[in-house]
UniProtKB/TrEMBL annotation:
Pathway: Carbohydrate degradation; pentose phosphate pathway; D-ribulose 5-phosphate from D-glucose 6-phosphate (oxidative stage): step 3/3. It is an enzyme of class 1 (oxidoreductase). Belongs to the 6-phosphogluconate dehydrogenase family. Gene3D superfamilies: 6-Phosphogluconate Dehydrogenase, domain 3 (1.20.5.320), N-(1-d-carboxylethyl)-l-norvaline Dehydrogenase, domain 2 (1.10.1040.10), NAD(P)-binding Rossmann-like Domain (3.40.50.720). It comes from Agrococcus versicolor. This is 6-phosphogluconate dehydrogenase, decarboxylating. The gene is gndA. It holds the Pfam family NAD_binding_2. Its EC number is 1.1.1.44.
Length: 479
């Protein structure tokens, strides 16, 4: 056997990851694809990679040194299960199967359990950075056993993106922890993209600036505290001119956003965990709304405000939008990390939040300058219960909140939809509020369903005899 690592599934992500692996000192990469023509095409296009071709799964197993390690890069869902079954039939105890797809973490937990019974290790590994990242350095989020990471870790460190001298990979936790964290990454990605889109939309409507002018604003923002990959590519997209019409490309792209489902998973999971990820949820829903042409056509006739936004000082307005974006972004990341904290508790994972922020500084889609601050916040306080309350972030809120409120209020008055800006602000104010009207909700629940309530001044559970003399009794907390 000559290869130390295999890639199974040679679509774009798989091919690029295989090429990345092959380009690193010490690796010999075996490659397998169900349709052999794809394998041949890859070998022909990249002779420099020195790939070892496997025409069958048995050949793949035979070409690998032990413990055998194979990274599976096929479609999430059934195709993944099929490939895992085949690999299990040719691998031996101690070997390692890595799923590098965007698998749902509960599938990963299930697969890990099943594969573990054969003595083979199963590692669900989140990979972020798209095609370019796979080729030149992604951010990697492996789960699975610590033992499997002893073999896998050095290989992954060799291909990961480097941020400030450190490879963007860490062992996230056991079984599905890696895919869980990747899912949250994608949830934050959805929120971040939606917030940036809202910022663009606000500036365009309220100042009348062109996409190219707004591109310059984003480029400028990217030189400051908002510096991030998504801001950078936003400028590029806004600057692009359509060859056919000569119009800005953004004006000829149909305004219906697609989604492969990972954002929705984040929200579904957060609902189960009881963690408010409202910014992420609004981002998912905003994509759904955009993709409902019939409803939008019907809605176009609905009454709106009579006066458009008349901005007196465009520069001051743009700065307000920047700060509103920054504050909302902090909330999105904060909610995402809060979901990681709760997920780790529920699934018994030891996740180092600071490490997660660290490996997101390079390679991944949400890479951003201020992730350093998240690492610092958790380094200072591992038990942080809400990321936004860390000193650095509460200072950001102090600086940004007036702008944020002006923007959300102005948008509401002039009828510009800013669901993610607005819900992030509502979350922030909810978090701050010394008293919430939840007391009234408890009263209502007790009224119609005898669901009981607790008091601020006494231990125990209580119920008011609403349909009797309305006196209060001590109650068993059975509801
Ligand atoms: C990444 C991305 C990637 C994701 C796509 C598509 O980290 O590289 O998150 O994994 O699948 O961006 O996502 P949607 O089609 O759901 O927008």
């Amino acid at each position: 056997p000559t290869a130390n690592i295999a890639v199974v599934g040679l679509a774009v992500m798989g091919s690029n990851l295989a090429r990345n692996l092959a380009s690193r000192e010490g690796n010999t990469v075996a490659v397998y694809n169900r349709t052999t023509a794809k394998t041949d095409a890859l070998l022909e296009a990249h002779p420099e990679a020195g790939f070892v071709k496997a025409a069958t799964m048995q050949e793949l197993a035979d070409s690998l040194q032990t413990p055998r390690t194979a990274i599976v890069m096929v479609k999430a869902g059934r195709p993944t299960d099929a490939v895992i079954d085949e690999l299990v039939s040719v691998f031996e105890p101690g070997d390692i199967i890595v799923d590098g797809g965007n698998a749902l973490f509960t599938d990963t937990i299930r697969r890990e359990q099943a594969v573990r019974e054969t003595g083979i290790h199963f590692v669900g590994c989140g990979i972020s950075g798209g095609e370019e990242g796979a080729l030149n350095g992604p951010s990697l989020m492996p789960g699975g056993t610590p033992e499997s990471y002893e073999t896998l870790g050095p290989i992954l460190r060799g291909i990961a993106a480097i941020a400030e001298g450190e490879p963007c990979v860490t062992h996230i936790g056991t079984d599905g922890a890696g895919h869980f964290v990747k899912m949250i990454h994608n949830g934050i990605e959805y929120a971040d993209m939606q917030l940036i889109a809202e910022a663009y939309d606000l500036i365009r409507h309220a100042t009348g600036k062109s996409p190219a002018e707004i591109a310059d604003i984003f480029t400028e923002w990217n030189a400051g505290e908002l510096e991030s990959y998504l801001i950078e590519i936003t400028a590029e997209v806004l600057r692009q001119v359509d060859a056919t019409t000569g119009e800005p490309l953004v004006d000829v792209i149909l305004d219906a956003a697609g989604a492969k489902g990972t954002g929705a998973w984040t929200v579904q999971t957060a609902l189960d965990l009881g963690v408010p990820v409202s910014g992420i949820a609004e981002a998912v829903f905003a994509r759904s709304l955009s993709s409902k042409p019939q409803q939008r056509a019907a809605g176009a006739a609905l009454p709106g405000p009579s006066t458009p936004w008349s901005v007196q000082d465009p520069d001051a307005f743009v700065e307000d939008v920047r700060l509103a974006l920054y504050a909302s972004k902090v909330i999105a990341y904060s909610q995402g990390f809060d979901a990681i904290v709760q997920g780790a508790i529920d699934h018994d994972w030891q996740i180092d939040k600071g490490e997660v922020a660290r490996i997101w500084r390079g390679g991944c889609i949400i890479r951003a300058r201020f992730l350093n601050r998240i690492t610092e916040a958790y380094a200072a306080d591992q038990g942080l219960v809400a990321l936004v309350t860390a000193p650095f972030f509460s200072d950001v809120m102090a600086t940004a909140q007036d702008s944020w409120r002006r923007i959300v209020a102005g948008a509401a008055q002039s009828g510009i939809p800013v669901p993610a800006f607005a819900s992030s602000l509502a979350y922030y104010d909810g978090l701050r509020a010394p008293r919430l009207p939840a007391s009234l909700i408890q009263g209502q629940r007790d009224f119609f369903g005898a669901h009981t309530y607790r008091r601020i001044d006494a231990e125990g559970t209580f119920h008011t005899l609403w349909s009797g003399d309305r006196s209060e009794i001590a109650a068993e907390d059975t509801h």
